[in-house]
Amino acid sequence: MMWFFKGIKKRIKTEKLNDKYKIKYPSALEGKSDYKCPTDAIEDQKWVKEKCIFCEKCDLKPTYNQDLYNINNNIPGLFKKSFYLYPVDSGTCGACNTEFDTIFSPQYDANRFKIFLSNTPRHADALVIMGVYTEGMEKIIENAYDAMPEPKLLIGMGACSISGGIIGEKIGKKFDIEILGCPPSPYTVINAILRARGDVK
Ligand code: SF4
Ligand code: SF4
Questions:
Q1: Which of 7, 11, 79, 130 keeps 20 to 30 A from 139, CA to CA?
Q2: Distance 130 CA to ligand 2 centre (A)
Q3: Is the pLDDT of residue 10 over 70?
Q4: What residue's CA is closest to ligand 1, atom 6?
Q5: Domain spans of the chain?
Q6: Is the CB of 126 under 6 A from ligand 1?
Q7: Ligand 1: which of 45, 58, 162, 163 to mutate, most ligand atoms within 8 Å of CB?
């Protein structure tokens, strides 16, 4: 709602999504801390970004750097004209889902980058898995992945899917793209995809 009024006042239609886009949390953390991290995201006083839930309790300092992703499989040339995402909730708190939905809002407008939402895995290029591992969703995720045409990608979104986060066990899959945060910001989601696709160096 705040953005709505800010947008009306300043006549902003969409975020520019360039390097000037800065938010405090989640952003890369720096420094050292011996705080007893609830998710073991501090090892030998150093930050382990995949496990961090950005609880702000330790002495690590935010850098405002939004490059919170791991690209394990570069896909330059692929999906440049259209990239269809099919989200699956394996067991979330709801916040990752909200941030994911926000990338398609007028503020972030992922469609302008040729990123779209698919309502079936049969038309999807990437499966976006959010939340912790749950037994009940294991087969459903497998079925969705099997139904997708080649080439296809697996994207993990949020600390829960990548490391188990604060609430459970990680999804035991190798993700092509890991989007970090708890929840990741919409900017990070779009940025990770653009970089994997080779649109942004
Ligand atoms: S912000 Fe919280 S979760 Fe992240 S390293 Fe610090 S204590 Fe751990
Ligand atoms: S990563 Fe964080 S925001 Fe996303 S589902 Fe897990 S607890 Fe919720």
A1: 79
A2: 8
A3: no
A4: 58
A5: 71-197
A6: no
A7: 58
For 139-189, the pLDDT digits (tens) are: 999 999 999 999 999 999 999 999 999 989 999 999 999 999 999 999 999
- Provide the pLDDT for residue 184: 96
Mean pLDDT calculated for residue range 54-69: 94
- Decide yes or no: CATH 1.10.260.40 for domain 71-197: no
Alpha-carbon distance of 149 to 170, in angstroms, equals 25
Compute the distance from residue 103 Cα to the ligand 2 centre, in Å: 16
Tell the residue nearest (CA) to atom 1 of ligand 1: 54
* Ligand 1 close to Cβ of residue 37 (< 6 A): yes
Which tokens belong to 79?
């999906």
- Token look-up 């499966």 returns 127
Residue type, 56: E
Q: pTM of the full predicted structure?
A: 0.90
Contact 38, 131 (CB under 8 A): no
SS3 category, 80 = coil
Query: 14 is written with which tokens?
Result: 């969409």
Contact 59, 33 (CB under 8 A): yes
Q: Which of 137, 145, 142, 101 is nearest to 120 (CA)?
A: 145
